Amino acid sequence: MGIQIDVVAEYPVDDEVERVLGLAEAVDEPVTVTFRWDGGRASERAVLVPAATLALWEHWAPSAYPADDAGDEEPELAHPEEFGAFTLFRRRVGGRTAVARKGVVVAELLDPREAHWLREKARTVRQGFMDPKQKAAFEEFLARQPPFLPSVHE
Question: Is residue 46 a contact partner of residue 116, using CB atoms and an 8 Å limit?
């Protein structure tokens, strides 16, 4: 999906994180990111999805991503992390991280499995959807068709 970028983010140096967040915002495409945090925090792999793209996927996806019932512990509440012009807000529920710039959410970090699931569900539903104009034209087309007469062989 989108572009793959590996980032080494060494806290508190925020230039690298700010640069990748800015790049993702500029390309306006989902970006796969691996964060290798300094100071003993485990590496994180996520997909950075622009807010408008995520809104579109969630509009078309027929349901929410199924919860992982593996008994994972709820993450601890953490202070927002600032990286230059960007602030990351980790959500305790759902595991997403909102990325804000100047007080506006511009993207979200999602688990790669959730991002893939949302994208595929949205694509499938959207491909099967007819907008009102298409539906009216199709109904008009069907109304102009001659009635079906069964053949002698049926």
Answer: no
